[in-house]
Amino acid sequence: MNNGPSFSERKDRSEAWKLLNRVDYNELTMEELDTMASVILQAQKRLGKSTVNTLKIGDTVTWMSGRTRGKFANMKLTGQVIKINQVRVKVRSGHNGVWSVPGTMLTKVS
């Protein structure tokens, strides 16, 4: 029995997702689940850092606000990179102000 993550559309599934969907998560120990969570967190950090390393000041990027309430709740924002740190990037989004965005949330606009 698989109670793990899945996608409704087949085209969205990668080989990694196909492997994860074969795992019976009910048979894993807490230690094994913690190890899996740690590996996934490290992969997210690597992805974020690789995104940050491809950016230059002046590049246009998009991201989802990540906020659940208020003026910017669930908004897709666009802006220009004004400063690049190791993990976060300062982005000026016009009249929406300056945002400090993690690299994992950014998508470079061509």
Number of contiguous helices: 2
Order of helices and strands: HHEEEEE
Total domain count: 2
What top-tier CATH class of the largest domain fits best?
Answer: Mainly Beta
Overall spatial form: elongated
Mean pLDDT across residues: 86
Biggest sheet statistics:
5 strands, antiparallel
Output the CATH topology of the largest domain.
Answer: SH3 type barrels
Low-confidence stretches: none
Overall SS class: alpha+beta
According to DSSP, the number of beta strands is: 5
Strand content: 15-25%
How many angstroms does the end-to-end distance come to?
Answer: 42 Å
Strand order of the largest sheet: 4-3-2-1-5
Helix content: 25-40%
Level-2 CATH architecture of the largest domain:
Roll
If you compute it from the alpha carbons, what radius of gyration comes out, rounded to the nearest whole angstrom? 17 Å
